[in-house]
Known about the structure:
By secondary structure, this protein is α+β, with helices and mostly antiparallel strands. It contains ten helices and ten strands. Strand 9, helix 10 and strand 10 form a beta-alpha-beta unit. The protein starts with a helix and ends in a 7-residue tail after the last strand. 31% of the residues are buried.
Amino acid sequence: MEQLMIDAFMKNRKAWLPIPKCRFGERIYHYTDLKALKGIVMDHAFWVTKSDFLNDKYEFYYAFKIIRKVCAKMIPNAQNRKIFMHVLKERMEFFHGSAADQVLAGWYILSFSKAKDSLLLWTEFSQSQGYCLEFDYKRLVRELPEGTHLDGYVIYDKKKQHELVENTLCQILEEKDEGRKKLREKLFSEEKTVSAKELDGFMKELAACCFVYSMFFKKDCFRDEKEYRFIFWAFHEQVPGSREAQVIPMHFREKDQALLPYIVIDYKEEEKHSPICSITAGPKNDSDLAVKGMQYFLRNEKIVIPVRESKIPLRY
């Protein structure tokens, strides 16, 4: 993605992407294993996975189908629809596809949930073992690097997904620019036609938004996860012609004989007020030992965080 595109996106992201967010005072939950927990608690750092290496590899394609349906409904001229969808698909695949001919960069996702002590999430993320960290949303947001992320609820309702895409498309077209007004008239006309060249500038902005939507849209069957996501953008190489873009190192971890790219996102802990409110041990057979061991560990490190045992009566 070009630096100008990033600048435009970051400037207008609140207007273009009205994704529902947590309120200050609310709690969010992060299910993880012991190794990751120690890094979060001791190093004040999250390992954030690249978006196209997440478990559900069909998220991108699901969101693109939603976007295609919305655009097909809004654009009456068949030729305009064809050109529009071709350019949009090309742009979105630029973000989603190979970085061989691009500046090495990417979107990264850090997942939380609004579900506390959820059997579904214990099973999905830690095989009924592991731990669940309870975070104070307000403290966490204030302690993350400023201006580095988007966050919001994952949206499962198809009607809401359609509304968000439609509103975003209209808002970008309503920019107070003479060329943009003419493009709007042509695009929504039954007789006039547009060219791929005319769509180029507008499509850079729309594709960026639609790609972000692809990371916040999921099928309704995943609704019980009650997922809340933080999305980070990172450049891993210097952007040609720009001295302002910060280069963030890409790291790799092993999973199932594959290498998964991730970035390290640090959070600051102000005056020993941790954003972590509590730690819950998973509902495994020896969860009482997991609680006791974690309590000793935290006390030894002089960290004050309550540790609890899951209330789910799982025994096997």
